[in-house]
Design goal:
The chain is of the alpha/beta class. The protein has nine helices and eleven strands.
Length: about 300
């Protein structure tokens, strides 16, 4: 019987990583070997297959058409292997690894996680705060809470809550803001990384947009802190300002909110969603969101 694995799995991993990343160094780091060892894996694989896999160019190693054709299958295969390992570990690992953006984590999720751990003392939380979209199939991250449109490939995404946006400010700015045009006469705090624009809110309000000016921040958490401290008015998502609105640290000077196709989503993989700890966290999260907003997740 012919051997289906003419090339050892470690060599296939090296080839896939180099093709995906473009460098021997990244593959060496992921595999825990030297760049020379990775290069040797590639040369031996080419010799066994009788096929050139990479063009050696001044820019580095570039996949040949033969490898380009096989690469999606290789990548999908290793993602499935990683998921299989996760399933085999299953609930034996008592750690639940969650990832979400730092702003949502700091302003809503973290202060509520204590309730989850009290309800589930056998599950230990590991938190990865990042705006990077983590490859859930390749990592030890069990689930993510993401803001977006739900169109991420290769995952199981469940819509939690749609996210309208609207202006918020400290109470001291409420009286000067009688109509949208008044925003041209007060400081407006800018979050340089925001996914929404003032123009969309003014359109929803049916009002012309005046020239806006005020402090600008590259970090959304700092922009929100500046707004809470009274430095101006900011466009914000409902979830990240919900607690500050409930406690009166922030107010909404206008009732108008702009709708978007963006929402918070619970994201995992088909395999990981079957794990007990992921199911428990999902159920707890949806209950907490309903308590916080008065809206049942999935109803928007």
């Amino acid at each position: 019987m012919a051997d289906p694995f003419k090339v050892p799995l470690n060599a296939l991993r090296a080839i896939e990583i180099v093709a995906r990343s473009g460098t021997l160094a990244i593959a060496a780091d992921e595999l825990g070997v030297t760049s020379g060892a990775v290069s040797q894996h590639i040369r031996r694989a080419e010799a066994r297959l009788g096929v050139l896999l990479f063009e050696r160019t001044p820019r580095g190693l570039v996949p040949t058409p033969a490898l380009e054709a096989a690469l999606p299958l290789l990548s999908a295969g290793f993602r499935q292997v990683a998921e299989a390992v996760s399933v085999m570990e299953g609930d034996r690992r008592g750690t639940l690894t969650i990832t979400t953006a730092p702003t949502f984590a700091a302003r809503w999720l973290v202060q509520r996680l204590g309730r989850f751990t009290r309800e589930n003392p056998d599950i230990e939380i590991r938190f990865v705060a990042s705006t990077t979209v983590v490859d859930l199939a390749r990592s030890d991250v069990d689930c993510a809470i993401r803001l977006g449109r739900g169109d991420w490939p290769g995952v199981a995404a469940e819509k939690l809550l749609p996210q309208p946006f609207f202006p918020v400010c400290a109470p001291l700015w409420r009286d000067p803001l009688r109509e949208p045009a008044d925003l041209g006469h007060v400081p407006v705090v800018a979050d340089e990384g925001t996914m929404v624009e003032w123009a969309a809110w003014f359109e929803a309000a049916g009002a012309p947009m005046p020239k806006l000016a005020g402090p600008s921040f590259t970090d959304p958490i700092l922009a929100l802190e500046a707004t809470i401290s009274g430095q101006g008015v900011m466009l914000a998502w409902q979830m990240v300002v919900q607690d500050a609105l409930d406690t009166g640290r922030l107010v909404r000077p206008f009732a108008t909110e702009a709708k978007t196709d963006l929402a918070y989503w619970f994201v995992t993989t088909e395999a990981k969603r079957k794990n007990r700890k992921v199911r428990l966290f999902h159920d707890w999260l949806t209950r907490e969101m309903a308590l916080s907003t008065g809206i049942a997740p999935g109803s928007g």
